[in-house]
Amino acid sequence: MPQAIPMIVMAVGTGLTALNQYQQGQNQQKVADWNADLQVQNAKDARAKSEQDAMERLKQAETLKGKQRLAYAAAGVDISSGTPLDTMMQTARDAEMDAINIRKQGELTARNYYSDSEILRYQGKTGAQAATIGAGATILQGAGNAYGSYQKNRIPTGYAT
Hints:
Blueprint: H1 4-74, H2 82-153
Helix pairs in contact: 1-2
């Protein structure tokens, strides 16, 4: 029986090492998934912010057009044609282009966040898989070592103890 003690200790140590490897992989996947979820939320926030910023830009343009109308009216200029009308129309076009660009930038930012989230999920998944494989390899190596130790330390049959 004393010969079995080192093998039992080796088997327990191997089992604990394998369990630790597996748990580390699972934890790595949980952290990666959590970080990926944060990236998805960042993407949603980027889209919402870009929409808010675009709407704010359009609102600013409307305010500017109102000021332009007031200034032309105060000067006695007809705003229904010519330069005043062209100026206000250009103000509206510029604001619309700005709003489009703001939304486009928000969408690009959101896509980058979504892409990052997919990469994180993949890294978590492959990390967990690698840890599971590592745990299995540890168990096989420990079993091989235990068997080798057993073979080395066993008393051949036919000899007195």
